[in-house]
Specification:
mainly alpha, 2 domains, 16 helices, 61% helix
Amino acid sequence: MTPTMPAEHRELLSDLSGIVCDYPNVDPEATLAFLASDASGTLDRVGTPEGRRERTGYVILLHATSWYVSARVFSKSLFASYTEVLEGFRATLDPASCSCQDGAHPEDLDSEYAVEAGVSMLAEAGRAAFAEEYGPGDEELAAFDCEGFLAELVDQAVDALREGHRRLFGDIDVSHLDARFVRDDGGIDIVAMQEAIDRSWENNTGSVALWSARRWLTGQVRNEERLGLFLCMWMGIAQTYEGLPPSYARALAAALATIDLDVSCDHPRHPWSTAEATTRSRYLAVLHLYAPEDHPDTPVPAELSAREVWECPGQYAELARTALADISGWRHMRGGEDEDWEF
């Protein structure tokens, strides 16, 4: 009879495969928290054959999903759960016990294959099904259980989690952008900032938004630069479609909090309402505003082009409200507890 994986493991395989392929069909935060909890429950059984099998499976699975925790789920508690159980496993592993031949350890495990291997290693039936499908011999299967191999995976995963935690919740340094965005006379080069945002393939919209927010909060901005700096921040928020983590959102929310959201005005429309439809029209509008001779084209009609209309507090309030809504959306999209997003 062809060996089959237990039903609950097939479900786990389906759930984790969707997550590591970046197309989750379940709540990733809850599923990965459950995985870490289940893994933690095996620590007391590592001295048994069953426990050692489970250790192998869970180490592979935690390693395979650690990139997702580090990049997609903005939850401090999930980071803590992963780190705690991985360090618990690491304490049970003796890399010096490895007697494998050079090159015997599985290498370059892509996440989807690693998930299948990890789930399969959890039980004898799964291992038999894995051997049936992929044909590894006894020595190749034994390499998955090697403590040297597992220790390498744990160390890699913990390092990735620490770096991910710093990136998502720590203090992000964007001071290198001073050299690109601050002119010799101390003024802000709004055109250079727009050109940076326009290079979307560099994934720098978040960095520009963060730099803008910090500059705004320091007050190192001339009156004629305030609008451009604010629009750069707004565009950086609006055009970071995957959402920015708390390490960025803190400064962004603080900068937006300086805007009076309750102000009103008599203008039926503001200039940005004619420019915000596309990233290209936004770009052209700001370039024309700050370098009209070099960039004569603008989506903003002449009747809305007066500087006092651009500078209207009502427009600032409109933009701030939409930006704050985007930040709130990141919180719901990326998860985490309320305290993870406290500003």
